[in-house]
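RECORD TYPE: inverse folding
INPUT: structure tokens
STRUCTURE:
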């Protein structure tokens, strides 16, 4: 089920990574963002991470958070963003 936050993240992915040929509805919530899913790579991950931090006003802590796990798909990324918005010191 796509939530408003999921849709917002999909739109951010498309705009921040310049994915002009993809619409939000083309990105499945549970499909992998990297590899055989959406096909993002490590450079895309860095750009997306920066865009998420700027857009949502959140900070990632690479020492205490397993970011790779949180960037698995739209659902896990939305849950992570929501958690950081509600608990900024996580």
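DESIGNED SEQUENCE:
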């Amino acid at each position: 089920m796509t939530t408003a936050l999921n849709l917002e993240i999909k739109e951010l992915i498309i705009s921040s990574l310049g994915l002009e040929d993809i619409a939000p509805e083309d990105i499945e919530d549970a499909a992998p963002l990297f590899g055989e899913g959406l096909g993002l790579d490590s450079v895309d991950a860095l750009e997306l991470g920066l865009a998420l931090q700027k857009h949502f006003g959140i900070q990632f802590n690479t020492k205490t958070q397993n970011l790779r796990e949180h960037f698995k798909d739209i659902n896990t990324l939305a849950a992570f963003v929501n958690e950081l918005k509600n608990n900024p010191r996580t």
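NOTES: The mean pLDDT is 91.
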